[in-house]
Amino acid sequence: MPCSPAALDAELHAALAAFDAAAAPWREALEDLDEDVLAEAAAEARAFGGGPAAAVDELVRGLLGQLADWQQSIGELGRALTTATKGRPLPGWSTDAGRTEDIGWRQGRTTLLEAVARHHHAHLLGGELELPATRNGRFRGAVIPEGCAVSAGRRRCGGRRPVR
After folding, report:
1. Residues 94, 162: one domain?
2. Which domain of life is it from (predicted)?
3. Shortest CA distance to 101 belongs to which of 42, 7, 21?
4. Residues 30, 63 contacting (CB under 8 angstroms)
5. In a shared domain, residues 30 and 96
6. CB 91 within 8 A of CB 12
7. Which pLDDT band, with edges at 50, 70 and 90, does 66 fall under?
8. Does one domain contain both 48 and 112?
9. Alpha carbons 46 and 65: distance in angstroms, whole number
10. Which pLDDT band, with edges at 50, 70 and 90, does 82 fall under?
11. Over 80: is that where the pLDDT of 3 sits?
12. Are 114 and 62 members of one domain?
């Protein structure tokens, strides 16, 4: 157990540095992601005789796996930092670092969702898909087709079953 605040800070900085090194590939994988990356994967698959949808699916599944690993690692970092303090309160800088990493994860997730939406649905709006602000992972202010009723977050369109 670290005896002094300086020793505790050193241990916390070491844990953050190790996490930062482990998280770098996840950040890089999602940093420049957009619909063009997905289109390139599809085009490359077509060029080599593969299925473009399968190639995009494989890429997206891989990125979703990386997001899951990143999120799990953030949780492990929080537990490691808490364990290192041995009952003492965490310094503000370390909790800020954890929050910043969580924000980075959320931005990476949003980037992936937007890339997939733009890749699959941009053609519906003439090539440009404007995504509204999100709250709790759902699109706020989304356009509801005429003839659809909205109730408690569900849409009912023309007698069909509700869609979430």
Report:
1. no
2. Bacteria
3. 21
4. yes
5. yes
6. yes
7. very high
8. yes
9. 24
10. confident
11. no
12. yes
Overall number of domains in the chain: 2
Beta-carbon-side half-sphere exposure of residue 139 (alpha carbons within 13 Å): 13
Q: Are residues 54 and 41 part of one domain?
A: yes
* 118/88 same-domain check: yes
Tell me which residue range forms the domain holding 151: 132-164
Name 123's Cβ contacts closer than 8 Å, sequence gap at least 6: none
Strand, coil or helix: 148? strand
Using a cut of 0.85, tell me whether the model's pTM lies above it.
no
Size of the chain in residues: 164
Residues 39 and 99 in one domain: yes
Q: Residue 157: which pLDDT band, with cuts at 50, 70 and 90?
A: very low
Residues 164 and 103 occupy one common structural domain: no
pLDDT of 102-134, one tens digit each? 999 999 999 999 999 888 876 655 555 455 555
Alpha helices in 33-157 (DSSP H): 35-47, 52-85, 92-121
* Residue 115: other Cβ atoms inside 10 A: 22
